[in-house]
Amino acid sequence: MNKSISRILMFATALVLIAACGQVLITGRKQMLLFSQGEITSLSDQAYTEIMGQAKLSDDYNNIRMIREVGHNITSAVDRYVRENGAEAALEGISWKFDLVESDQVNAFCLPNGNIVFYEGIMPITNTPDLVAVVMGHEIAHALAKHGNERMSQEVLVGAVGQAISAYIGTEDQKKQAIFQVAYGLGSQLGVMLPYSRKHEYEADRLGLIIMAMAGYDINVAPGFWDRMSAGKNSAPMEFFSTHPSDANRIKNIMAVLPEAAKYAPAK
Ligand SMILES: [Zn+2]
Question: How far is ligand 1, taken at its centre, from the CA of residue 169, in Å?
Answer without folding.
Answer: 31
